[in-house]
Design goal:
About 70% of the residues lie in helices and about 0% in strands. The chain is elongated and about 80 Å long. It is mainly α. The chain folds into two domains: about 55 residues; about 70 residues, Helix Hairpins.
Length: about 160
Amino acid sequence: MKKFFGFAIIALGVFLEVLWLGVCFGTIVIGILLLLFAPRILFFPFNFFLVIGLAMIGSGSFKNGANFRYQKYSYTNQRPPNFAQPHNATNNYYEILESQPTDSMDMIKKNYRRLVKEYHYDSIASKDLPADMLKFAQKKTQDLNEAYNAIKEARG
């Protein structure tokens, strides 16, 4: 009996959707505007009655999410993400300097100097590399300087 009522509700939804589309497209301008800018409003009657009908037919298969299971993810060769700290611009600066927020300022300075030496424009220019590599090195050096200065300011 529930399945019969479920199918009846879905049929009612289809009928009401056809009527609603007739009203909306009775005036072509309103129908086209709804179709372009608000399709959820246009198809609301069908979706509403479809969900109710499927819930009746499914006889409670959606109750309380009892079949939901959490999956355990393994982080191989990676550290698990730290969900306690939001990923903000300061964390991006640490990534640029290949450091961690827990590293000392001396360690961050060593990483900064090593990376600047590796990517500095003059050291790349002396190797006779193409112009696009020189532009990349210049951009990377700017990013390193910005990151180091931001971390210095944040740590005081």
